[in-house]
């Protein structure tokens, strides 16, 4: 009957939508994991550069003291 066809189409649409929603959830989780990994890498780079900066400042201070004396 016509009602069965409508019900079948609705069921098909619901199942398709469920699949799309699952794909979106997986994609969102994957993107979040990738962003967290990038965040860790960038934080490590910032820490490394901060250490290098501190070391160079000490070296600069030592050179200034040497040539001012």
Structural class: mainly alpha
- One letter per element, helices H and strands E, the order comes to H
Tally of DSSP β-strands: 0
Q: What shape does the CA trace take?
A: rod-shaped
Please give the alpha-carbon distance between the first and last residues: 101 Å
| Low-pLDDT windows of residues | none
Question: Main β-sheet: number of strands, strand sense, barrel status?
Answer: none
Summarize model confidence as the mean pLDDT: 97
**Percent range of helical residues:** over 70%
Query: How many DSSP helices?
Result: 1
Radius of gyration (Å): 30 Å
Q: How much of the polypeptide forms β-strand, as a percent range?
A: under 5%
Question: In words, what does this structure look like?
Answer:
- There is one protein chain.
- Helices cover 97% and strands 0% of the residues.
- The chain has one helix and no strands.
- The chain starts with a helix and ends with a helix.
- It is mainly α and 69 residues long.
- It comes from Iconisemion striatum.
């Amino acid at each position: 009957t016509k009602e069965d066809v409508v019900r079948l189409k609705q069921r098909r649409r619901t199942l398709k939508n469920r699949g799309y929603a699952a794909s979106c959830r997986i994609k969102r989780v994957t993107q979040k994991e990738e962003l967290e990994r990038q965040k860790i890498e960038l934080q490590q780079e910032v820490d490394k550069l901060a250490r290098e900066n501190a070391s160079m400042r000490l070296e600069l201070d030592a050179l200034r003291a040497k040539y001012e004396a």
